[in-house]
Amino acid sequence: MSGDSAPFNLTNHFLIAMPGLDDAMFGKSVVYVCEHSARGALGLVINKPADMPLPALFEKIDLPLHRADLVGQRVFQGGPVQTERGFVLHESVVAEGQGSDESLYSSTMTIPGGLEMTTSKDVLEALSMGSGPKRVLVSLGYSAWGEGQLETELGENSWLTVVADQSLIFDTPVEQRYDRALGLLGLESWMISQQAGHA
């Protein structure tokens, strides 16, 4: 493969940690990539729950949680960057009279593929009041790669990549997400060698 190959974009993809990736945060992790460009990448780990139920997070920010469907959810460890800050991954929400490219919330990244990531408190306030996006994943912290860093890690066989499947994020039990992500590639964890191969 030549060094000047065309750039690729992993926005709206999963990064699936290879078994050899021995890291407390990223070992056996599935990362949803929210943004990937020449400047770097940003994503959220979707299969590492924190030791905090969602209602406890709302209590910390002095909001009640009036969404029965969310009471049993946990907060996730989205990554090692800004771990005190909340990141809400959710399906797209558009207010009446707004264009489809305008979010309802004040600080939202629209991700090609139908999801949004919001960092402003207004999305939590909406959830608190019993409304807001139907399907959400709330995390503290995010994962980031600087310019060329993710590409280097991919070259070192640290990650597998596959187009993201929203049902894996919102409908699949946490403990099954890693194996289900591998399944999107037709793989099972026992098939993957811990060692990188060189032909």
Describe it for me?
- The chain is α+β, with helices and mostly antiparallel strands and 199 residues long.
- The chain has helices at 54-60, 121-128, 149-155, 166-170, 177-183, and strands at residues 13-17, 30-37, 40-45, 49-53, 74-77, 81-91, 108-111, 115-118, 136-145, 159-163.
- Strands 1, 2, 3, 4, 5, 6, 7, 8, 9 and 10 form a 10-stranded mixed β-sheet that branches.
- A hairpin with a 2-residue loop joins strand 2 and strand 3.
- The protein is globular.
- The model has no long low-confidence stretch (mean pLDDT 90).
Helical fraction: 10-25%
- What is the beta-strand fraction? 25-35%
* Termini gap: 13 Å
Rg for CA atoms = 17 Å
Silhouette:
globular
The SSE string, one letter per element, is EEEEHEEEEHEHEHH
Mean pLDDT level: 90
Largest sheet report: 10 strands, mixed
Features:
single chain; 199 residues; alpha+beta; ten-stranded mixed beta sheet
Explain briefly what this protein structure is.
With 199 residues, the protein is an alpha+beta fold.
Structural topology:
Layout: E1 13-17, E2 30-37, E3 40-45, E4 49-53, H1 54-60, E5 74-77, E6 81-91, E7 108-111, E8 115-118, H2 121-128, E9 136-145, H3 149-155, E10 159-163, H4 166-170, H5 177-183
Parallel strand pairs: 5-9
Antiparallel strand pairs: 1-2, 1-10, 2-3, 3-9, 4-5, 6-8, 6-9, 7-8
